[in-house]
């Protein structure tokens, strides 16, 4: 446990500079009254403040001091923001759904012991997609009965681990089913069937999973055959059905459409005598990465899902199933930021100015992979006016290693602390050692205390798995 200095008194900078021309524009006004905001709708972490040194604080910890203590780049995760998102999902289902429910954390967004432990402590289960994610969830204290294994190409070893541990398995294809059918298990194996619903939504093509042309799930034309197969497998206990339409979605109607489709298949499964009792609607709720992003709140999303399932079940004369969902990005995405040190600058006359930081695509591959947009602030001069338009570039030997194009920022100097917002989802989990750069550390902050949850890799870590054959040693 590593403590940082106690939180300093907060300063109202509104009388010092127009917040619309400084980094203060991204902060939530502290005068806001009413219910707790939905974290996925915020650009900054829930607890973000500015202290009397004009520094950004998160969780009562000075971001500049965190970088001095733990090094750069650094992932900084706001524990209260993460817990608030967990609570809002959990409590919204209690409010809007009369049946049983279970929220699962889609740990592919960021799988580590600390985040899984927080999710478990808030009553969530965990959605996993590999043996490593199974082991992480188990080690973090998640009961196996609340772990659900996904994957379009699960290995036999991964399936064996899931069965041995007592996890639920979401079958994605015929290989899953035939492999599981070949197992001899002392207890029935709990499985769900993932079906591709054929529902389009507006998001990046790489993260759209509900349309027919997807590598995930059984095609709707296969559903009858799959359910009939399961009806003939006494040790495969089909507990329910699953569908997922994509990620970073701002529309509610596709999710409402999904509930109708799922209930129709649920009726078919019951007609075949399968013991189905659960429906998993996936996740996909988007977060705010830029000012123009306007995602629904967690409560609005849950209400849409709950009302859709309730209406469809009433129409079909069915009792309410256990309702599951598996958010990832909307739980952890907005609660984390990444802090860097500013290094070199290059101005191309009449074109652009590049400002380079000491990280880039190795700690955030989303811009080069998905053309993702981000916003940034200067943590050591929060009220400085944003007078410059620059391109924030990474340090890697790749022309496309650009974090933000045309960022509105103050005039920057070498050594400034540049923070990129909303980096909790698919940043640490997709990080790499490109150019043999060690992956960053991560800290969890709350009430003025910072705890290391991921150690920074060292140069020796980069060489740990290298092997030099004897015949190559000593060659000049």
TrEMBL record:
Matching Pfam families: Orn_Arg_deC_N (PF02784)
Positions of modified residues (N6-(pyridoxal phosphate)lysine): 108
Keyword field contains Lyase: yes
Enzyme class: lyase
Reactions mediated catalytically: meso-2,6-diaminopimelate + H(+) = L-lysine + CO2
Pathway involvement of the protein, from the record: Amino-acid biosynthesis; L-lysine biosynthesis via DAP pathway; L-lysine from DL-2,6-diaminopimelate: step 1/1
Source organism superkingdom: Bacteria
UniProt GO MF annotations: diaminopimelate decarboxylase activity
Positions annotated to bind substrate: 329, 366, 370, 398, 426
Leader peptide range in chain numbering: none
PROSITE patterns (UniProt xref): ODR_DC_2_2
Region (Disordered): 1-42
Family label: Belongs to the Orn/Lys/Arg decarboxylase class-II family. LysA subfamily.
Self-association state and partner proteins as the record states: Homodimer.
Function comment: Specifically catalyzes the decarboxylation of meso-diaminopimelate (meso-DAP) to L-lysine.
Name of this protein: Diaminopimelate decarboxylase
Classification lineage: Bacteria, Bacillati, Cyanobacteriota, Cyanophyceae, Pseudanabaenales
């Amino acid at each position: 446990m590593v403590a940082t200095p106690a939180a300093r008194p907060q300063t109202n900078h509104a009388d010092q500079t127009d917040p619309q021309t400084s980094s203060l524009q991204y902060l939530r006004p502290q005068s806001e009254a009413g219910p707790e905001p939905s974290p996925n709708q915020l650009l900054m972490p829930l607890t973000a403040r500015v202290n009397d040194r004009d520094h950004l604080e998160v969780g009562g910890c000075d971001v500049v001091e965190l970088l001095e203590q733990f090094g750069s780049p650094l992932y900084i995760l706001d524990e209260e923001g993460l817990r608030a998102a967990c609570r809002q999902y959990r409590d919204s289902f209690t409010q809007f759904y009369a049946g049983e429910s279970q929220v699962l954390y889609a740990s592919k967004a960021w799988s580590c012991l600390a985040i899984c432990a927080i999710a478990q402590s808030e009553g969530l289960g965990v959605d996993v997609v590999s043996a490593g994610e199974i082991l992480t969830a188990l080690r973090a204290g998640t009961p196996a009965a609340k772990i659900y294994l996904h994957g379009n190409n699960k290995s036999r070893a991964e399936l064996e681990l899931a069965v041995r541990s007592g996890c639920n398995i979401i079958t994605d294809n015929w290989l899953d089913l035939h492999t599981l059918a070949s197992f001899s298990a002392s207890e029935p194996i709990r499985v769900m069937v993932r079906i591709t619903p054929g529902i389009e939504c507006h998001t990046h093509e790489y993260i759209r999973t509900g349309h027919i042309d997807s590598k995930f799930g059984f095609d709707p034309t296969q559903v009858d055959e799959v359910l009939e197969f399961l009806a003939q497998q006494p040790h495969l206990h089909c507990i329910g059905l699953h569908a997922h339409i994509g990620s970073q979605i701002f529309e509610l109607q596709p999710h409402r459409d999904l509930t109708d489709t799922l209930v129709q298949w649920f009726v078919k499964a019951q007609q075949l005598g399968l013991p189905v009792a659960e429906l998993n609607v996936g996740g996909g709720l988007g977060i705010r990465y830029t000012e123009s992003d306007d995602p629904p709140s967690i409560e609005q999303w849950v209400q849409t899902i709950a009302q859709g399932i309730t209406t469809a079940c009433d129409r079909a004369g069915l009792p309410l199933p256990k309702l599951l969902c598996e958010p990832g990005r909307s739980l952890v995405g907005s609660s984390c930021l990444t802090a860097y040190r500013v290094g070199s600058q290059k101005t191309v006359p009449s074109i652009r100015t590049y400002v380079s930081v000491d990280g880039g695509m190795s700690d955030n591959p989303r811009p080069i992979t998905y053309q993702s947009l981000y916003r940034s602030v200067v943590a050591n001069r929060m009220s400085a006016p944003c007078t410059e338009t620059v391109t924030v570039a990474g340090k890697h030997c790749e022309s496309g290693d650009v974090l933000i194009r045309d960022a509105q920022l103050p005039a920057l100097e070498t050594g400034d602390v540049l923070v990129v917002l909303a980096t909790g989802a698919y940043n640490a989990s997709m990080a790499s050692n490109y150019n043999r750069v060690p992956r960053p550390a991560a800290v969890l902050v709350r009430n003025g205390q910072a705890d290391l949850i991921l150690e920074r890799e060292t140069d020796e870590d980069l060489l740990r798995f290298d092997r030099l054959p004897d015949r190559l040693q000593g060659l000049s």
